[in-house]
Amino acid sequence: MDRVLVPVGEPCPFACTYCYTRGGEIRSARIGVKDIIHQLVTFAQENNFQTIQLGYDGDPFARPERGLALLRELVALGKDINFSTKASLHDNELHALKEIKAALSSHGSILSAIVSLSCWESADFLEPNTPTPVERIATLTKLMSIEIPTFIAVRPILPNVSDEEYERVVSEGALARCPGFILGPLYVDDEGKFARLISDQILEQVPYTQNKIPWSAYPVSWKRYEDVDRLIRIGKMVEHKGCRGFESSATAMTFLRSKNGNAS
Ligand code: SF4
Fold it and tell me: Could you tell me the CATH superfamily of domain 3-259?
């Protein structure tokens, strides 16, 4: 096993319209920091893994105290840590992250981040309560300034967002010296809640498979919408701009480890 997903354990307030974390389908909405760490430590006693990924059920920096408390506890496990965020980060949080990074580095582990951008001009409509794309690029720039490698997750790729808009996302990320872009599918529940702002006519044109969701604590099965031709097209556009594209966070983490000479 290469990586373990660790929850934030509280609902995310940003309310992106395509978000799948907010209905409690992937795990119970509230778990205390101590319980999260206890479960992980127990798991780590019997399982070997390289990377901890924080933030699959919410945004750890929607409430920065929560994200920092979790990261400080996670350092003791001596693993590489990656966190995902759309939040704006301020000086005190960056200072704390710098300390966490130094503590991890002291035993040869890496702290990295992912900032998510699923659109640019459509953000007012699709992500009305979330920090703007410009603010998220600022977060990426700040994290890179303290030498935390920060990828951009273009995930989900949304059928109602144009290729031109994704070109803007990649151009802005490239300008900010983002080390790579993680491209990913759209998951939609049976009732279509996660795709409520996507018209049926548009969604019908995208191929999908029905998938059991491995990161859910429950037996959940959703539709995974993924237009492979479009994925390849966007991947080529990423490369054309001199950047790297990754098919998953796991491959981005592997790249980072090999770059740091820690490939396992
Ligand atoms: S920031 Fe992430 S977890 Fe929070 S609402 Fe948006 S997609 Fe969901």
Answer: Aldolase class I (3.20.20.70)
